[in-house]
Amino acid sequence: MFTQALMITIASLSIMTAANADPIVVVVNTTSPVTKLDKEQVANLFLGKSSSYPDGSAAVPIEQTDATPAHEEFHKSITEKSASQLKSYWSKMIFSGKGTAPKEVASNAELLKLLASNPAMIGYIDKTAVDKSVKVILAP
């Protein structure tokens, strides 16, 4: 009985945590010529299937570490991969020489700082962290 109650409590907390996660948005530097991308284009950039924007200019995806809530939310909604699937995917890509995982940062603030320095970079942050240094190009 105690075990069942404990499992229900844990499941409820997990659902509440997921429901309380801030929505994420995909952002670029305000000087970037990119104004909009769709979910598939963004997924292709972050999975190393594409290295450029639709206009042909270079794209540099910046990932948040898997310890951030934004990381899980982004991959759940954009790449549709769990943390373990993503690790497996990048292990295969790296081992086969077909790609390297994007650079990682540990917070929204670090990502904003990097994006401000390079208009080719693309990243994702909590919607509440958007400031004047970036523009939103996808709000899933």
Task: Please describe what this structure looks like.
The radius of gyration is 17 Å and the shape is globular. Helices cover 44% and strands 18% of the residues. It is built from 5 helices and 5 strands; from the N terminus they run αβαβααβαββ. The N and C termini lie far apart (40 Å). The chain has one domain: Periplasmic binding protein-like II (D-Maltodextrin-Binding Protein, domain 2, 3-Layer(aba) Sandwich), CATH 3.40.190. It has helices at residues 2-20, 39-46, 69-79, 83-96, 108-117, and strands spanning 24-29, 60-64, 103-105, 121-126, 134-138. With 140 residues, it is an alpha/beta fold. The model is unreliable at 11-19 (pLDDT under 50). It has a 5-stranded mixed β-sheet with strand order 3-2-4-1-5, with helices on both faces.
Largest sheet: 5 strands, mixed
Topology pattern, helix = H, strand = E = HEHEHHEHEE
Say how many strands there are.
Answer: 5
Number of self-contained structural domains:
1
| CATH level-two architecture | 3-Layer(aba) Sandwich
Q: How many distinct helices?
A: 5
CA-atom Rg in angstroms: 17 Å
Mean pLDDT reading: 89
**Unreliable residue runs:** 11-19
- Which of globular, elongated, flat, extended, rod-shaped describes the shape? globular
Q: Which sequence of strands runs across the widest sheet? A: 3-2-4-1-5
What is CATH's topology name?
Answer: D-Maltodextrin-Binding Protein, domain 2
Supply the CATH superfamily name: Periplasmic binding protein-like II
C-alpha termini separation:
40 Å
CATH class: Alpha Beta
